[in-house]
Amino acid sequence: MNFFFSWLKRPYFFNHSIKYRLIVPFASGLFVFLFLCVFKPFRLVELHGNNFVFYSFGVGVIVVGVFFITLFIFPILFKGYFNPDRWTVGKSIMIVAISLALNGFFARLYSLSSKTEGVPTESLSVFLLYSIAIGTLPAILLCVVDERVTRKKREKIALRINKGSSEIKDPPKPGTTISLKSENNKEELIVLISDLVYLTSEGNYVSVFLKKEGGLKEAVLRTTLTKTTIDLNAYKNMVRCHKSYVVNTNYIKKIHGNARGYVLKSPIIPFEIPVSRGFPKGSLKILVNNS
Question: Which of 47, 214, 274, 291 is in Cβ range 3.0-4.6 Å of 51 for a Cys bridge?
Fold first, then answer.
């Protein structure tokens, strides 16, 4: 059971771009319309003449409307839930389940309000099963295809950045130090800017990682990463790439892209540092020093 809940909380890819959110409703509506017209399931074969075409078209329109609600209206109403950096497997499953449930609900209302003889009028639970039967497979295929396309695109961007020349920055003078202070100014940490590798935050504390013989040394200040970032604004090589990380780009040698986003790699940092999904794509090259 713990494994299942851990799996639901795993970070997962979800395309929040306007283009993708426009494609999904119309592609899904078209698929449902064609599926119903071609296979005539759920007793639609009993409809006379072209009635099943008009009925199928109405159901397709409902699918388009439902996905517009879940992909455009919901993100406005529930901004925190739809945060790209906090998207998980569980959230993806929840959105698909809500969409399928709404499709079944509105499809039944449409059937009950239709004056066409022979349309399905089963219970709501049956219509929900209809929705699941038709919608599950295309939903899975759409996610798989979009994940693959996005991964390939980001891999190409990362490869181009890694092969390209580094963004020219104004390096600090040798021996330049900086004073980092705690929130209440009672603690002070004076370090060489050239030794500053990266910073990360946990609650009201910021961990500062410095280059020392044999690896990295950690120092902790009671402050916020936002305040510390402001203190580092004068140094172009210090970039906040994520809500929880500020990196010294002089130590970043590669960027890697996948469907979930981008990560930074450094020979001195023992793990990959994530790049926020909201980080400007045009500025990704400033994060890497491949000279």
Answer: 47
